[in-house]
Structures are given as structure tokens and as C-alpha cells.
Amino acid sequence: MRRFIEKVFKDSSKEPNFSAPSLPPQLPYLDIFYMTNRGFLAKKLGQYVGLHSDEGAALFYHSFSQLSFDDSNQENQYEYLLYLSEQMLKWNKLKHNIPLQVKNLDVNPDIQNALLKAYEMHKTDLFSMSYEAAVHDNKVDSNTQMDPKWVIYRDVIFAATQEKFLLISEEEVNTYRQGTVFCKGMIKNRSDIPECRNLAKQSLESENVSKSTIMSWLLLLSEAITNTIKHAEEGKMTLIKDEKNHEIRFIIEDNGPGFNLEDLPRTTLLAGYSTKKSMGQGFTLMMKMSKQVLLYTSSRGSTLILTFDISKEKEGELNATG
């Protein structure tokens, strides 16, 4: 984890040497409220870039040490996160387009992803002024299922991908839960990626799936789980075997902000395209190596379903024994 932090920040050798500060006796309530929000946001950013929980807590308390971090040493990773948090809160107060401001920053891609994720996760509370202004200007898409616009996007993407990628509604998700659950896993931290992979590998082996097929499927699983870690607070993995339809399904759910409807044609049709610098080859690879990719997405979270045909696996077993 320390190596990951060293990649994000130029100077990661400094350990946090601050403790909970004493508040000035005459500090106004509004300043305390502001410092609390800034500290909370910095703690979240620290979590998203991989800081230890103790370091995140120290960040929160350090927010109360001074009113502004505008003149802080940006080589200090902790104060830099507080500075960025301060900037985001200022942009909100000015009703600026925060995602656009973040994308214009000259920062490490991991930091940029963390800022975008923080905005998406807290756009209705910490950044409500900016978000409401964007909604008023029609710059935000609601992704409402069965809305005429959503239906058009669903049909066009489905046709353009040769029926490999399908947008589905929340009600339709339950249809794909039919079958026998043979593996479950929780996704909260980066360390959960290899743990979920190993758990899925063992479960697929117990289902007599061939080694070469397992390796291909696990590659797609890693793509899906990595996306959950980067853009949501937490998620879960469920593997289902549907004997009736001769399918195995990977269901990856998260509580993130969802996918922008208007970006989906590019993310599904253009290899290497990604607005968040993470799912570049993701959907393209998933469509190539699975039977079908299904996606339900909303501002409350997303459900990604990868389906795999197991009839070929059964044919292979018969040929091997015959």
C-alpha cells in the first residue's frame, strides 16, 4: 500500500506528525462547520487513494488546525489533500461545474479519480449547490429507466454491439438472479480484489470449469471489481449457475453514483475510451469474452451482470470422457 501512495505523491516519506489540535476559543460556528466538511472530504480522498484509516482520521483532525490550506506545502501529501478538499468546497459555493474543474487540474490520475469519485458520492450533500446548478442547466442526466431517452440508448447500444450489451431496468435484474448461488464475496478495499478472485477461482473449479476458461473469466471479474473499488464505497460479488439456461453469471453490485447515460455509447463502442481513466478496455473486453453484458445503473448504484455459456464446457467434458 505504501508503494501505491509513493506513486501518487512525490514526497511520501513524511509520516503524519500531527495530533488532534486545540480549537481557537472564539472560533465561529460556521468556521467549525466548514472545517468539519473539509476534514470529512479529505478523509474520504485519503481512503480513495489508499491511506490507512489512522492517517485518514489524522487528516480529519488536522483540518481544524487552520482556517485555510491555500498556502500549504503541496509536496506534503496530507496537507495537499486538505487543499484539494478546500478547492472543491469553494467550487461548490461558486456553483462551478466541479467535474470539469477536476478534469482541468494537472494532477495524478489516481488523485483525479478520487476527486471525481468524492463528487459523485456526495453531490447531493457536500456539493449540492454545484449539483443543483448543473441539474438546472440540464447538464445532469437522471438515467431514468423507461424514459424515452433511456429506451433509445438501450436499443441503439444493443443493436450496435450485436446484442452483446444490454441496459436493463431494476426490475429486470431479478430475472438474472435465478439459479443456484455458488459463490459470494464483499468488495470494500483493494485487498478484496485478489481475495474475490481466489474465492471465485476455487468455486469455479468445484463446478468443473476448465482452467483456461477460468483464467479468462477471472480477468473480466477483476475488471468489474476494480471498477467498483475506484468509483464506489463498497460492493458485492455473486456467482450464479443457471442449469435451465446453461449459464454461469457474475453479478457485481455497488453503491456508487452510476454510469452517465450519455457516456455509455463511447465506453461500449470505443476501445480504450474512458471518462474516468479506469474502464478503458473494460466493456470492450467483457463483450468479447462473455456471452452477454447487462447493466443496470442509477444514482444509487449499479449492477453489472456477465453471462457465460456453460454448454460448451459440458461438451468438453463429454469429449474428454468419451
From TrEMBL:
Q: Which InterPro entries match?
A: Anti-sigma-factor_SerPK, HATPase_C_sf, HATPase_dom
Name the SUPFAM superfamilies on file.
Answer: ATPase domain of HSP90 chaperone/DNA topoisomerase II/histidine kinase (SSF55874)
Tell me the ranges covered by the Histidine kinase/HSP90-like ATPase domain, including all copies.
193-307
Q: Which GO terms describe its molecular function?
A: ATP binding; protein serine/threonine kinase activity
Keywords assigned: ATP-binding, Kinase, Nucleotide-binding, Serine/threonine-protein kinase, Transferase
User: Which Pfam families does the entry mention?
Assistant: HATPase_c_2
Q: Which domain of life is it from?
A: Bacteria
Q: What is this protein called?
A: ATP-binding protein
